[in-house]
Amino acid sequence: MNKNELNPDASPEAAYGARLRSLREARGWTQEDLASRTEYSSVHISAVENGRKPPTLRFSRGVDRSLGLVGTADAFERQYREIKHGNLLEGFPEYVKYEGKAAEIRLFEIGLIPGLLQTPEYARAVADGDVQRGAITPEQAEERVSFLARRQAALVRPRSPMALVVMDESCLRHAVGGTEVMDTQFRRLAEVASLPNWVLQVSPFGIGARRSFNLPMNLLTMSDLSVVAYAESQLRGHLERDTAAVLPLLTAYHQLQAEALPQAASVAMINEVRKGIS
């Protein structure tokens, strides 16, 4: 029997279906075999594999149990959640895959505390603000907060990455969620700054035009010493892996670090702003 050729680049759902077929066939299973293991029909399996029916959380968990992928980096539940993150900017889910494996992380943020440093309360307040604006649904807000928690948890591993963070001063001045939320968030920043694998710096308003970036910037050094860059605007994100394009960004980041306050002075500023909101 002829089988349809699958194009995993057609859509996230198509990539899910193509990977499902590939892993199923690698085990020598028919669609009927997988159906019996997941309590779905072979017609349903076929529809998901061919991209005619979107996967669900229940389906993904059933597939993971059948294929022995529960809790792994290759779990279909993770892929399903990435599909569900349709409200995330283009390129960001792919960036997160690299982030979870990076040996070194460099971040620059404007306006908001970087996600990897956000407390659950702060992250919830940011998501709730987007709900109030009508930008996302309450369900998407819940998933966004959970997604951030998983990103943060992925950094806790036997060889945790070195994380270097430069925050524009606006990150500290922009009040999110009220006094109690901000007080807890500032305490979290001070705690992180004391950890051996984190360096926190503030880029003060006073550096003016010497600030290297006008948009958030993420740079990841992988275990093979390759560097991946991710930047985003209001409308889209872009993941860059080409060395010739990434190296100038790395140079600009080093220049930004040189202009930013040293960590001790940065923590002093954080504490000073914290006193001002108490």
What's the topology here?
Elements: H1 12-26, H2 31-38, H3 42-49, H4 57-67, H5 76-84, H6 92-99, E1 104-109, H7 120-132, H8 138-154, E2 162-168, H9 170-173, H10 179-193, E3 198-203, E4 217-221, E5 227-232, E6 237-240, H11 243-259, H12 263-277
Parallel strand pairs: 1-2, 2-3
Antiparallel strand pairs: 1-4, 4-5, 5-6
User: Strand fraction band?
Assistant: 5-15%
Name the helicity range.
40-55%
Number of domains: 2
Query: Roughly how many Å is the radius of gyration?
Result: 21 Å
Q: Provide the spatial order of strands within the biggest beta sheet.
A: 3-2-1-4-5-6
In the CATH scheme, the class of the largest domain would be: Alpha Beta
**Span of the ends, CA to CA:** 71 Å
Question: What features would you highlight for this structure?
Answer:
Endonuclease, Chain A; alpha/beta; 434 Repressor (Amino-terminal Domain); 278 residues
